[in-house]
Amino acid sequence: MASSVPFALDQPVQIIAHRGYSARAPENTIAALSLALDEGASAVEFDLHTAKDGTPVLLHDATVDRTTDGSGHVTLHTREDLTLLDAGSWFSADFTGEPVPALDDALKAVEPRVRTIFAEIKGVRRLQDVEAIVEVTHDAGLLERTVFISMDWALLDEVRRYQADALLGPIVEHTTRIEDAFARVADDERSLLDFDARILLAHPELANRAHEAGVALATWTVNDVGHAQRLLELGVPRITTNEVGRLLAWAGTLPTG
Questions:
Q1: 5 band by pLDDT with thresholds 50, 70 and 90
Q2: Every domain of the chain and the residues it spans
Q3: Nearest Cα to 158, choosing from 120, 125, 130, 121?
């Protein structure tokens, strides 16, 4: 499934399920990832931290308090501890008992159907933990289908240090980082820029600048079809959303020729 051309798409737009289908299932769980793929998404995004024992796990926050029935920093919990937490009830009783998934389990669940994974590295115990994230992804046979993204660009440097041909996506969440972001990916065909959609909508000239420089673009988090349409018109075909069904329905109306 890997393309010989980094970031090549065989469709007008790629709808990326943000933390899985997070509008209809608890974020960063296998249930949310599976539901997104069931709905027809070809790409998923999730967040990563490392646990006390160094295991990469899917979790947005640095603590487990918001999305589980546990408490405390993720680095205080082992993989086994996290599997015993309930990461579903906060969202709906229908998901009671849904665990915090380890990265290897999540990748095993999505591997047969996913085309692209956007793995956001949120935090690690120490910089060397990045190697475990890369190794787990490699062992799952998904390295060529995974774009490692992060707001902490030093973590992406570590990914590249362990895997020279890894696909990277520096996240641009503030306008103050724009110049550094473009400089970072200049002449690097295996890096894209992942923009907060509000920046691109407010500064559409950035999309043209990226195209002229040969830089691929992705964007987050877009739940409005009108915004999605405008971004696509700007030449931004990778759109991350919580509302997977809504955006897939819109994408289904686009001409394919």
A1: confident
A2: 14-251
A3: 130
